[in-house]
Amino acid sequence: MSVTRVVHYVNQFFAGRGGEDAAGAGPDRVDGAVGPGRRLDQLLGDDFEVVATVHCGDDDASGRPEAIEEILALVQAEQPDLLVAGPAFTSGRYGLACARLAAAATAAGVAVVAAMHPDNPGVDEAKGAPVVASGAAAREMGPSLDRLAAAAKIVASGRALTADDGRVGRPRRVVSTADKPAAVRAVDLALARLRGDGNATEIPLPNFDQVTPAPPVDDLSSITLALVTEGGLVPEGNPDRLESARATRWMRYPIDGADALVSGDYQSVHGGFSTVYANADPHRIVPLDIVRELADAGTIGGVHDTYLVTTGNGTSVGNARRFGVEWAADLRRSGARAAILTAT
Amino acid sequence: MPEPAAGLSRAIHRVRHVAFGERTGYDGSTLTVDRDAAMARLASPALERIDLSWASPGEPVRIVKILDAVEPRTKGPGGGGIFPGFVGPARPQGRGITHVLQGVAVVAAGFLPRAQEAVVEMSGPVAELSPLGATHNLVVTFAKAPASSWEEVDLALRRGLLALAASLAEAALEVDPDTVEELPAQVPLAAGDLPRVGAVVNLQTQGAFKDVFVHGRSFAGSWPTLLDPNELDDGAVVSGQFGHPALKNPTFLHQNNPVVAALRARHDVDLRFAGVVICPEPVDQDSKAATAAVTARLCALAGFDAAVITKEGGGNADADIALKMDELDDLGIVAVGLFAEMPGPDGTGPSIVVPPSRATAMISTGNYDEPLVLPAVERALGGDSVHLVDLPATDELTLPTAVIYCSLSPLGWSSLRCEDAA
To answer: CA torsion, points A89, A91, A96, A102, in degrees to nearest 10?
Structure first.
């Protein structure tokens, strides 16, 4: 029996390339197993061989649209039988990269398994590709790799990974037509609950992670502040056609050199509120005027040269989480260390 | 012992064919509309031009930019009190006889600020996803008078649509109805062992073009209140809400509230219909929480054992259901919420924007982002293009379910739902 060729994907840190200072590094590869991949290689046994490790900086992998495609090309060049990504623990950018790589690999017909903590936002980005649970942090590397290796063997054998194997993520929701309208089923459900069926429901409750706010910035006078909004404020005419609802994208527009956002040069395309006041004074959405004053007074070190914008109106939680991770990566890469996010 | 107050009789007149003609009339099957007389009902200084067209089931027609839809009803000459606060005086209705032209809707279509693209197909696979896909629709299109504000246009359309709907139904006043449905006047509190189940109806109240009216008045800023269910049949609740097409509750569906219909159908069978509580959907969290708490108390006072809670609008309206479900649960009242899911086009994202934290009984009304293919049509009403995709309105279109009028009906009209993939 031939040896199963495995490619392992890790971030810059686990590839030994550096910490946040190297988070902007692009995709690259090295021969054989590196870092946690060595233990993975041992756990997989003699029938498997980690032939290469592909790695990429977290900011680049999660923030640059073409990065996943490039990483997958490096993986495919190894002609692997199996791709293993992570474990990413609770690291958002790393998890996103692993999950998107798993989704892209699945679409390309490459067998894959990724590992991350069940609360990692990446879980929602795997688009049905197998993700197995890991611990929350690298100190749980040992048991996380045990589970990942076991899952990798199952996936390599062509069997489906199940919740019993540690698989995480919701099953896909598929649309069907019920035999009764929702109103009738709602009355049925109320009566079922009254009869004592305490668990009856058509929608399993989602698990929502609680966001812990970042600690306050110690010294604002030394940092670059970014302006970020979900208020749909775009240049007049909406040149990039940002959606007014159910946004799937976000935009970046330059504000360097501008002291203010002139009424008439900007408009809000947000479909969820009356935009009259936003259009009359765009600073109600993106407060550039005040922030410039603070920068001139030395209260803040500087103003980031672009503002980031999407429309927060009927946006899916999955997209909203993705925007958050991508914004964080984008801002980190460009040097901003604090942001004001205006909500509407 | 005093006689119990008589309830409401709904005289149902089925309309099988429609036409324009010399005089408005109904012969027990065909509704003929005098176009000039209908235009006169709609005339307003705010409207420079008005056009009327029929769009009937099975025709290769698409209606775009749909605003409100109204079922023609009247209680007598001049409306007899129908649509209180608009056509009739602002008084409680829901008694006597109401004549219903079933199978017809008066529909406004065109641009208004904040209105989101809303589409109905009269034929093809998507027609059945909207209540208007099965009705003969008298489509009102319009042009704004230059000197008028959009708010004046909105008001003129609402008044005109309701007045026209009431006047059309007058044609049936002297015609024998197909059926008469008797709706009881009230449900005594202490009667029998059956569980008391009521409806909690959240009404979107987010300012101009996203507002709902009760007895002619915006419901924004109001506290929740009990409403005699029969008042819904007489048009006490009128929509002025043009966002979230799939999650919109037009006047047509308030007149035919599906949850109320389901509860009436089971009344004295396996439940007692305990009544309706209408609630605003405020825009800030404190008001949402306060409204939820007041709603739960009202439901308890009205003796609800269980409540079915509906909403209007997108993600932030999920909070209005979720908070009420938890508040009701805390008072020991079973709460069932109707939610449209938002797991993305491939169904892999999280479904609910704001889920309840203690109550867990939820009904799915489908996936907001599920793509649908609409075949090309011969004729489009309401506009020349479909705003969302910027394509000619008659083209073959791929659109999210979110754009199809009432397709994910928060009032439970639709049979779409999501399930876990096997």
So the answer is: -20
Q: With contact defined as beta carbons under 8 Å apart, do B165 and B73 qualify?
A: yes
A192 Rama sector, left if φ>0, alpha if ψ -120 to 50, beta otherwise? alpha
Q: Which amino acid is at B371?
A: P
Q: Do B315 and A314 touch (CB under 8 A)?
A: yes
pLDDT at position B184 is 85
Q: What angle do CA B319, B325, B328 make, to 5 degrees?
A: 135
Q: What is the average pLDDT value for chain A, to the nearest integer?
A: 92
The secondary structure of chain B in percent helix, strand, coil, rounded to multiples of 5, reads 25, 35, 40
Strand partners, A162: none
Q: How confident is the model at residue B2 (pLDDT cuts 50, 70, 90)?
A: very low
The whole-angstrom distance between residue A132's C-alpha and the CA centroid of its chain comes to 17
Indicate the residue of A180, A191, A319 with minimum beta-carbon distance to B271.
Answer: A191
ipTM of the prediction greater than 0.85, yes or no: yes
For A184, name the nearest residue in chain B, comparing CA atoms only.
B262
pLDDT at position B6 is: 79
Given an 8 Å threshold on Cβ–Cβ distance, is A206 in contact with B343?
no
Chain B positions in Cβ-Cβ contact with residue A185 (cut-off 8 Å)? 363, 412, 417
Residue B399, strand partner residues: B372
Of A153-167, B1-15, B111-125, which gets the smallest average pLDDT? B1-15
Q: Are strands B196-204 and B306-310 parallel, antiparallel or unpaired?
A: parallel
